[in-house]
Design a protein that fits this description.
This protein has about 350 residues and is of the alpha/beta class. Helices cover about 40% and strands about 15% of the residues. It catalyses: L-histidinol phosphate + 2-oxoglutarate = 3-(imidazol-4-yl)-2-oxopropyl phosphate + L-glutamate.
Length: about 350
């Protein structure tokens, strides 16, 4: 027997999450990164930040609980006092540990499809049953189907991305409220795109044990520092705290986000610019009758085109990388996903799309 024979067969059968490794001159609009470095807009801000990093005690273990970041997040995003906040090394890590927390033998996870692929993957990894309820053709929620699945499977854990990825569509508040009311288990409202959206469940966290709202700073200019957070009732968050690795956050990232929250107007400006660009691109795409662009409340737009592979390859030849969704779910037939970039990057994509399809 070799050492490899001891590794789980289900893991060996998986393929690794694909991360594109691109030449420097490529425009990368495939994974919802912000095109703006948050601190390079002013040399003063950049200097303050680098000075702060230089003072950081990287020789000491971090103490996330005493870092002050939870309080800063609470203030910046109006998280109610009744809620407790957990920090994760990216919200991906929180998805992992929330799943682990609820993975009793025989327990079920529910999600809609298509949605964020990590939910299902974590269910498999931690031995949960998984139920995926298809969305409607227009990527809205099939509420009766979700409620029926809840009734049948009594899920311990439900993940809802609000707005949803990879579709950009935000379900309605009333639908999510109905799910929370119907669910005996925990409903995680994943607001990775919450700052680009018109609605949030953060003001409600702490009011009931079965609601957790998860957010990340990745999509608003900090994908490189890996910080996500989850807010929920103190009782549930205390249990989660027991299984999170004690030093999961790093000093440099903690210091960076605290600094960012003190200068939130810069980040907010960038969010407003991206939202304005999103609306501009959506309007442009909507004038081309051979395309179907879906209304988005995130920093990306999902579009179904006559030939997704052709568009993907044409953009790639022009050194632009987007996400080809076609093939990942039947509802995403001939769909692609465009991350909103700088105006000139968006124009480069629009020009190619117009040449092909207008
Ligand atoms: C990007 C994304 C995440 C992961 O964010 P990180 O904090 O970077 O790990 C989680 N959920 C959804 C829906 C996302 O799109």
């Amino acid at each position: 027997m070799s050492a490899l024979d001891f590794i789980r067969d289900d893991v060996k059968a998986m393929s690794a999450y694909y991360v594109a490794d691109l030449p420097k001159d490529f425009i990368k609009l495939d994974s919802m990164e912000s095109p703006y470095h948050p601190f390079t807009c002013s040399s003063e801000l950049l200097n303050q930040w680098t000075a702060l990093l230089a003072q950081t005690n990287i020789h000491l273990y971090p103490n996330p609980a005493a870092s002050g970041l939870q309080e800063a997040l609470r203030e910046a995003f109006e998280i109610p006092q009744a809620a407790a906040v957990a920090l994760g090394n990216g919200s991906d890590e929180l998805i992992q540990f929330i799943t682990l927390l609820l993975a009793k033998p025989g327990a079920t996870m529910l999600a809609v499809e298509p949605s964020f692929v990590m939910y299902k993957q974590n269910a498999a990894l931690f031995g949960m049953n998984y139920v995926g309820v298809p969305l409607n053709d227009d990527f809205t929620l099939d509420l009766p189907a979700v409620l029926a699945a809840m009734e049948t499977y009594n899920p311990a854990l439900t993940f809802i991305a609000y707005p949803n990825n990879p579709t950009g569509v935000r379900f309605t508040r009333e639908e999510i409220e109905a799910l929370i009311r119907a669910s005996k288990g925990i409903v995680v409202v994943d607001e990775a795109y919450g700052t680009f959206s018109d609605d949030s469940f953060l003001p409600q966290v702490g009011s009931t044990d079965n609601l957790v709202v998860m957010r990340t700073v990745s999509k608003i200019g900090f994908a490189g520092i890996r910080i996500g957070y989850a807010a929920g009732s103190a009782a549930v968050m205390n249990e989660l705290a027991k299984i999170l690795p004690p030093y999961n956050m790093n000093q440099l990232s903690l210091a960076t986000v605290k600094f960012a929250l003190q200068h939130f107007e810069v980040i907010h400006d960038n969010i407003l610019k991206l939202k304005a660009e999103r609306e501009r691109i959506f309007a442009e795409l909507s004038t081309i009758s051979r395309l179907k662009a879906f209304p988005s409340e995130a920093n990306f737009i999902t579009v179904c085109v006559p030939d997704a592979a052709e568009l993907f390859e044409t953009l790639k030849r022009n050194k632009i990388l987007i996400k080809k969704l076609h093939g990942s779910h039947p509802l995403l037939d001939q769909c692609i996903r465009l991350t909103i970039g700088l105006p000139e990057q968006n124009d480069a994509i629009l020009n190619i799309i117009r040449k092909l399809y207008a």
